[in-house]
Amino acid sequence: MKSRILNIVGARPNFMKMAPLMRQFATRRDRFDARLVHTGQHYDAQMSDVFFDELGLPKPDIHLGVGSGTHAVQTGKIMVEFEKVVETEKPDLVIVVGDVNSTMACSIVAAKAWVPVAHVEAGLRSFDRRMPEEINRVVTDALSSYLFLTEEDARENLRREGVSDDKVFFVGNVMIDTLLHLLPKAQKLDTLQRFGLRKGEFALVTLHRPSNVDQREPFAGILGALETIQREIDVLFPIHPRSVARLKEFGLYDRVTGWPRLKLTEPLGYLDFMNLMSQSKLVLTDSGGLQEETTVLGIPCLTLRENTERPITIHEGTNLLLGTDPKRIETEAKKILTGHAKKGRVPKFWDGKAAERIVEILAKKL
Ligand code: UD1
Q: Is 104 strand, coil or helix?
């Protein structure tokens, strides 16, 4: 008997996590009927389409076309549309990845329809419920029957919330599967030249967390630090649509575009971004995924947040958690620029085989 699995993607960070799973399922067509569902949470070409091409993700079998909205509107629309899909497709399992609204919305629908949920990247906790992703993680994990961990710290978080150990599997990091798979291809591109940058002589920045960009003060503070840093080194800032809208709203856009060595650019595709990240001197970010990718690449990462749900990138990796104090950001960036960067090592099972382990477990359990 083939098991029918609905695999959910919605927003940018989902695509690189799902790609290796779809690749594994494609090698087991005898055993699995794996279908891809795109909720449409992200819809711009640069936030969605480009990843399908580059990651080799199959065209979605089902597209919910949900789009943007407040949290309740977006989550609600996904639930309404996905419920219809569950009714007609009758899946044996729903797989969700990460912590975006699509992850939680589809988990709720599946669990209420008595369809087991597998959560890939389970158990991560920032312990900050002002972060929408933290709510998504807690709810998704509470409803999941299979919880696949990227790091062992997560196991304790789940125990504390009463999740029984027999549902929990430490398998490694599917996003790193994609990184290791595509890095050679990314490094062949001429991205650096196209942006007029030199290897090891630029900083790469991403910022999109509501806590950093939705209010003027923290956003302006971080930008102040970037102004100082760009006096020392070229800075490339591929900017998320949310952040560019806020820059304009706060009247900061013209100021930022006037700094000579800081360049704003639209969000980049996966391969261009990996090309740049792997050759950068340092990364400044509030992303979750980048903390992990820099750790594997051995690139120093300054995380501009008060907390992280990915503590292993601090204990073992190249990540430093800085908050948003401009002076602190400038000081730590300076240390890196003067040759005093933190060194790290690659965490266990971040080896390119996480999806293989997951599919192996599912083949036994389903
Ligand atoms: C979402 C995820 C976040 C993830 C991020 C990566 C949630 C709660 N948040 O945040 O965890 O790190 O994706 O990008 O799920 N927009 C566009 N084009 C798009 C998508 C969005 O212009 O293709 C704009 C819209 O104005 C939208 C805003 O960005 O309102 C925010 O999009 P949304 O999906 O709500 O959250 P993100 O900030 O992207």
A: helix
Question: What residues does 120 pair with on adjacent strands?
Answer: 97, 148
pLDDT in tens, 66-118: 999 999 999 999 999 999 999 999 999 999 999 999 999 999 999 999 999 99
Catalytic residue among 63, 208, 240, 340: 208
Q: How far is the CA of 73 from the centre of ligand 1 (A)?
A: 13
Residue closest via CA to ligand 1's atom 27 equals: 68
Pocket probe mutation, ligand 1, options 48, 211, 240, 266, max atoms within 8 Å of Cβ:
240
Q: Is the CB of 144 under 6 A from ligand 1?
A: no
pTM beyond 0.90: the answer is yes
Query: Could you tell me which of 100, 88, 92, 122 has the C-alpha nearest to residue 31?
Result: 92
How far is 149 from 233, CA to CA, in rounded Å? 37
Query: From the CB of 133, is ligand 1 less than 6 Å away?
Result: yes
Q: Under CATH, to which class is 183-337 assigned?
A: alpha beta
Architecture of the domain delimited by 3-173+350-365: 3-Layer(aba) Sandwich (3.40)
Any atom of ligand 1 within 6 Å of the Cβ of 101: yes
Residue 340 bears catalytic tag: no
Tell me how many degrees the CA angle 88-90-96 measures, rounded to the nearest 5.
105
List the domain boundaries for the chain: 3-173+350-365, 183-337
